[in-house]
Amino acid sequence: MPDLYCVFGNPIAHSKSPAIHAAFAASTGEALCYEARLAPVDGFRQAVDEFIARGGRGANVTVPFKEEAFRLCNALTPRATRAGAVNTLSFVDGRILGDNTDGAGLVADITGNLKFSLAGKRILLLGAGGAARGVIEPLLAGRPATLMIANRTADKACALAEAFSDIAAPQGDLLRGALSAGNFTDLAGQQFDLTINATSASLAGETLPLPPGIFAPGSLAYDMMYGKGETPFLKQAREQGASLCADGLGMLVGQAAEAFAVWRGRHPASAPVLASLRSALKG
Ligand code: NDP
Q1: Segments forming the whole domain that contains residue 223
Q2: Paired residues of 215 in beta bridges
Q3: For labelling alongside 48, which of 3, 86, 135, 179 has CA 20 to 30 A away?
């Protein structure tokens, strides 16, 4: 019998995770079966318990359960603790271990697939929800010159900056001072080399009230959202002068590859899976 994994979410029918993990299993020769499971909004814990009882070895967690998953774990990795959310569960000897691979997936896409180095760059992170929180530490680990968090509700951005203000770089230098926060009007007069949209505005087809001139020449605009065509944020970024634009499909594949490595101890090649998902989206 292949080892059993799944992704929990609500809704979940359109999840690409089963196809991604099936491709990873085929390319690595790992014997596993991965399915999408709809959990009731008020029944996540029970759905996890049932899956464990069926012999499940691990699970991914998506909207709206990442914070609840964080709370039900018996042990957490440091990056999951920092993120305050869990997207990867491992079921080992009756215990639930929680990890968060979203930030690693984003950084792998930006620095690996897109070949855009974070070192010394001025980074703008738009949004202060769960997705933003999960990527701050891996972004800081890339040693940017500055990281500004801007959110519609400025207080939430300030709280996030405060929560991460003690992070040390690998060399031990404190990055305190590199982090700042505010709302969108605070961006006026500033320029950024990398702007990441971690708001859900694009999901609603809305654009953000970004002041003109924030995209530096040669800058990359990255939208965590992905879809068939250009997202509203990427259209706005292109029109406001961003040189390079990328959506979050690579982040999706990257976080899945990292989760696969957590479970199976080996990193699958993500580029062929990303290329095939991209051509399916275009087709
Ligand atoms: P949350 O609900 O936790 O946070 C939403 C954020 O968006 C908040 O900062 C909120 O601001 C802001 N926001 C919502 N609507 C608007 C608007 N109209 N104008 C300005 N700001 C707005 O969501 P998540 O953090 O979980 O997800 C954010 C995005 O990231 C989603 O699009 C999600 O699909 C994507 N994502 C992609 C992943 C991938 O693998 N590619 C992985 C994880 C997430 P406020 O605080 O003021 O309400």
Answers
A1: 103-247
A2: 192
A3: 135
Structurally, how many domains does the chain consist of? 2
- From 274, 281, 219, select the one nearest 109 (Cα to Cα): 274
User: Would you say 213 and 124 are in contact if contact means Cβ atoms under 8 Å apart?
Assistant: no
CA of 148 to the centre of ligand 1 (A): 16
- 234-273 pLDDT, tens digit each: 999 999 999 999 999 999 999 999 999 999 999 999 999 9
The 10 Å Cβ neighbour count of residue 152 is 15
Q: Is 18 in the pocket of ligand 1 (CB under 6 A)?
A: no
Ramachandran assignment for 85, one of left (phi > 0), alpha (psi -120 to 50 degrees), beta (any other)? beta
Instruction: Look at the pTM and tell me if it is higher than 0.90.
Output: yes
- pLDDT digits 0-9 by tens, 22-56: 999 999 999 999 999 999 999 999 999 999 999 99
Residues 117 and 184 in one domain: yes
Q: Is 16 labeled as catalytic in the residue annotation?
A: no
Q: Tokens 């940017």 appear where? A: 144
